[in-house]
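Researcher: Good morning. I'm working through a list of sequences from a screen, and I'd like to move beyond sequence-only analysis. For each chain I'm collecting a predicted structure so we can compare shapes side by side. This is the next one on the list. No need for commentary yet; just the structure.
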Amino acid sequence: MKLLLVSALFAIALSACMGLDVEGGGSSSEGPTNNIPAAAETPDAGDAASQRCGGGSLEGCFSYYEMGDYLDAVTPMVAQYFEETYPRVRAPRDIVYIPSGRAARTSCGTSNSYAYEYCPANQSIYIGQDLLWQFYAGAGDAAPAVGLAHEWGHHLQTMLGVSPASRSEAIDFENQADCVSGAWAKYASEQGWLEANDDLRDVTTLLDFIGSAEGPGRDHGTAAEREKAFDTAFDKGIKACNEFFPDSPLA
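Model: Good morning. Structure tokens for this chain:
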């Protein structure tokens, strides 16, 4: 992924998550968050990241200890798509980064550094350092951003009233979030942020990895189903994601 072509890094400022308690590594306190700069602000983080990443690519630019910086770099890219496409839908209340060795008590339970999840009860996304690093180092720099778009897709489903009523619908629910991430990737490609074949290979590697981990009692799609859902919106846009729940369209 590139940062040089990002002309503005912006999104809705996210408020603090009510009831959040992050534990470990010392006294309990509200967890470290990645609040997005408001649209009116003009942060210079994009330029700084472009300089540090040598030509703007995020590939291999961040170490394990800099995963919070990586998340700060890609969050505005994901936020921009949803703000432009759904200006009347509130952004997630918070995006919480959980360092290794710590845990966050949330309205949905407890999340740790292997989290990549959305909590509908407090409309917040939780991303852990260790799983973020696995995606970044193992699949490539675009993979964690697609994962964030997937979780943002769950927020969109929550805000627009899409809800599964059975296990089969739970799989469709997850596949639809993959579809939303494909719509974001289409937008990112149109903005010139993606490094064409390299970043799409990152996504395939990610979906193969997480899809293959699903067993007989799965509540997510297989690798093939997830790739198909992603490709559907990457080719046709967000409206193609309506096929999963036609009675509750996303667009």
